[in-house]
Fold this sequence. Notes:
Layout: E1 11-16, H1 19-30, E2 34-41, H2 56-61, E3 66-69, H3 75-82, E4 88-92, H4 100-103, E5 109-116, E6 122-123, H5 126-132, E7 137-143, E8 153-158, H6 167-190, E9 206-207, H7 223-232, E10 240-244, E11 247-256, E12 269-272, E13 278-281, E14 286-294, H8 310-339
Parallel strand pairs: 1-2, 1-4, 2-3, 4-5, 6-9
Antiparallel strand pairs: 5-7, 7-8, 10-11, 11-14, 12-13, 13-14
Helix pairs in contact: 1-6, 5-7
Amino acid sequence: MVNDVSTGNPSIVFVGSVRSSYVTLSSLLDSGANVRAVFGLAPEVDGRVSDYVHLKELAGAHGIPYADFIHVNDPRVVEAIESHAPDYLWVIGLSQLIGPVLRGLPRRGCVGFHPTRLPIGRGRAAIAWSILADVPLAATFFLIDDGVDSGPILSQLDVLGGPDDDATARYRALYDVIPAAVAAAQKNVEAGDAGLLHQVDDHATYLGVRRPRDGTIDWGCPAMQVVRLVRASASPHPGAWTSDRHILIRVDRCAVTPPGRYIGIPGRIVEVRPDGAFVVATSDGAVDVVAFHADADWQPRAGIRLGFDAEAEIHRLGERIAALESLVERLTATVSSLSV
């Protein structure tokens, strides 16, 4: 599609839903790009999306027509996009896949975005996996094809993160790089095929989806693994969680304690500090929980064992079942004596 590049400023319809969408759209508008319309994910479904941003205000500030959508491939949405006759459709920060009908509308192609060094790290939850599995981050703009994050690359700029970064810091570093990556992508769009870098599928790696429950802390893991999970689950992600029976506790920040300082049963609180921080044993040491909040009036106490202990729960259920059976036997005996 990019072979028939003509002179002038190609028309763009922009689609997005998150902070990277906002930063990309701002960069396009600041560069004088010919953005004819903006379509954004509707606010009523923002709970399903981490780092959601409503693009209506930004579009309105530049006098650009705006419309909400819930499903981008809805025929009414496709028809509305088609009415703007775009040369390019920029689809940035949207978890919904673009269907073949919508992909075929723009005269020159659809531009997508992915925050890894493609073809490494195709798929979902890239920021979290960059912390959990050292997946390299990059601001990558590419032409969308019928695969997932597999199209020819228009621009790719590395995002450098620190070893102690949490998800918040990684997102911030990504946003800082996006404007330069947008400028490079626009330049390469005009270069046609000469500006494309075709991905080698044999070099591709794939990232699996993560759900909110994947932030549940397993205290039987090594301390560093627990710390990485907490960092990867930080805002705008749903957070890392543990529990004390029925009370949920979100761990916002923690650190590995010095080797050999604490020995204990994984999940058990081994120390509570005067400032409210507390230390939890892991499989190879302990972590110092320095920031947390709970969904009830909960305070840490030494000796509490956090998390789900299957054996203990089964034992407690067995005791409750035995107690209920005993109660049923007594009630049955009472009823029988009354009916005699």
